[in-house]
Design a protein that fits this description.
- The chain contains four helices and 29 strands.
- By secondary structure, the chain is mainly beta.
- Helix 2 runs antiparallel to helix 3.
- It is flat.
Length: 427
Amino acid sequence: MKNMTESKRNNRKASANGTSKQTVSPVRVLQEVQGTQTLVGSSIGHLTLKFEPTLEFVKVQFKCDNPNLKIERNGEVGDECSFILEFKQDDKREAIFDIRARAVEKESDEPLDICCRDKNGKTLGNTRRYWIKVKPAPVFQPPDNFSIPAWIIYVIRLGARSRLFYLLIIVVLVVALFRYDVPPTNRIRNWAQRVSDYAQIKSGTKDPYVYDQAWSDPFLPTEDNKPDPSKWLAPKEWTLANGENDSGTDKALKADANGVGLNILPSDLYALYDYEVSFPLNISENQRSARWVVRAQSQQDYYLFELTLPTSTVNELELHGYVYRNGIQERQLTDPTPAAIGFSKFHEGDLLRVTITVKDFAFKHEFNLGLHNEKDFKNPNFDLQAGGQAKTLTDINNTYRYGAFGFQARDGTDAFKVERVDIKILK
């Protein structure tokens, strides 16, 4: 009671002096701060803030006396270095921020104050202070001669702060070999270029080479009845089933488990850019759909095309395309000519040949139907065997320029069979 009385007296005294006292919640939502303790030159550090496990909303504000320290999150600097965080029930209560320094001229210890507020601006717990040491980047001058020991020392010094340490060692050795005309220089040059390209392609700083050879897979029988692992990166549940006319020697790829299967090229330094791919779909009775992916960067990033087959009540094919990133549908592709693709319901054993021309960021699809009984003139699709129908979808955002081809299945609820896959490169 005495403490409460003194608190009220102090509040009245502050009010009488014309100043307002900031209300601080006793709740301490910011539980832990972890991250980089030293920034050297223009390097980027990270701060991880961990919050109270039931927190739903918090506004985090950073304050630093040094204007050369910058805080970012997902590429955004925030309004007055403030960031609004909202968490769902199952979210992990933490956030990662990038911190970088610029124009560092001398070493110093810089305080970074972190304040948390609720939606009404009320402070949630006391301000936390985090100390960061900033240092100017060391300056290494390259040797002014061709002394091999001097160059080795120079590269080792750079390697302490460079991710390309081993690549630089290789480059220095190659320079020395060329300087002293050590044969065979052509092979060394080609090998060094190959190593450099491989590192850049793998790191995403250089596009893969253009694959310029035909690629095909007729799905020949295998001992384990699985697609050839040298040609397909596919879910383990996918199998080879009997193909056209239920032939045991003419197999077909059966995509009947959730996942994406992608074709594999002879080298991961190459990728498909512009090409034409064709494949016959072996239709099963009451089959509803089929899906394929184009220019896949991985099994998470690709263009997805979904074909909905005609039914007894809907006499048309429906083709839709989407951009997928990190396994999540991002947006739909543009359909410049939204006219229907007229077909009646397909039946067991019908073959629908799909031919896709992948050119720039347009994806032209042609559909040619072959009836299981090609002489069945009573079939509503009988007259449609003579010619194909086409539809083109485009990506106005130019998302993916290259990548693998493949198929996607969903939960095994709508399996489909592919007789073979043939890819022809467009010159």
